[in-house]
Amino acid sequence: MSDQNNHHIVPYSIYFNVWLALLALTVVTVAVSYVDMRNVAILTAVLIATVKCTLVLLYFMHIRFSKLLYTVMILSVLGTYAIFLGLTFADYGYR
Amino acid sequence: MSHQTTAAVNQAHEHHDPVANKIGMWLFLFTEVLLFGALFITYAVYLTLHNWDFMAGSRELDRLMGAGNTVILLTSSLSMALAIGALERGKKALSLVMLGLTLLFSFGFLLIKSVEWSHKFHHGIWPGAEHLAAMNQGQQVFFGLYFTMTGLHALHVIIGALAIIFAAVMIIRGKVHAGRIDLLENTGLYWHLVDLVWIFLFPLFYLIG
Fold first, then answer.
1. Where are the alpha helices (DSSP H) in chain B?
2. What is the pTM of this model?
3. Cα distances (angstroms) measured from residue A1 to each of A7, A64, A85, B177
4. In chain A, positions 23-82, which contact chain B (CB-CB < 8 Å)?
5. What pLDDT digit, counting tens, does each position of A5-56 carry?
6. Which residues of chain A are within 8 Å of residue B181 when distances are taken between CB atoms?
7. What is the tens place of the pLDDT at every residue in B3-30?
8. ipTM, 2 decimals?
9. How far apart are CA B131 and CA A95, in angstroms?
């Protein structure tokens, strides 16, 4: 029995592999934070966090196995958010 | 039961729309993204304006507990995904065990969070504390954001735990099953969002020192 949103039932092993990848990325994040390079460390941490979020979205939240509609919705929201962030710094960055 | 009542009951079932329910949950998640997102933008601005103070504040937080909570939430997302997978395969008991594990992980998270906060309170750092008011403005902003954002997040963990309990009850009662699984899937979506928010909270508060 599969639900109408997925083509098939996702194998358990995929969930375990994603979990292992997430744990590994967490270790990397913590390790990088000990390299004393301040703003580079922050940027790296945010980038790694973005990768982790993508994995959670794609596999745990099933976007990888869902209709394109959901990808479009999510990218639209993230694009909107990027505009908020960008415009905010277009202001504060030059005060 | 009269013929009319049976027809009414059948009509109620016809109105169950799992696709609409899933899209609806995603729309709600987008409002959560903008809610926490606005707080993250606030954090980003003040990180830029009070860079040194933020890093000093970050060093006051316990990395081990923060990392521990990260591992707990990531694993809880795994158990949640497994719970859904189990129910998809018709394995009701396994699904309930996985949901129970997810719930235990959520309690573990809240326990560590409360230990962290009491440490801070013990050292005179809480919203409105005199000791905090005597610190640099930047550090005050840092801890204000720390309590606000981790507090709002913890509230979401509590709500998520309640939602998980509700889903488990529905499964036990047979209302949620392999053929009608969207309530559990949407509960999972909410739980994963809670995990996503923490994935960003952890490095930005605990690892920038």
1. 3-14, 18-49, 51-59, 63-88, 92-122, 130-133, 137-172, 182-206
2. 0.92
3. 11, 19, 43, 10
4. 23, 26, 29-30, 33, 38-39, 41-42, 45-46, 48-49, 52-53, 56-57, 59-62, 69-70, 73-74, 77-78, 81
5. 455 899 999 999 999 999 999 999 999 888 867 778 888 999 999 999 999 9
6. 3
7. 556 666 555 567 899 999 999 999 999 9
8. 0.91
9. 30
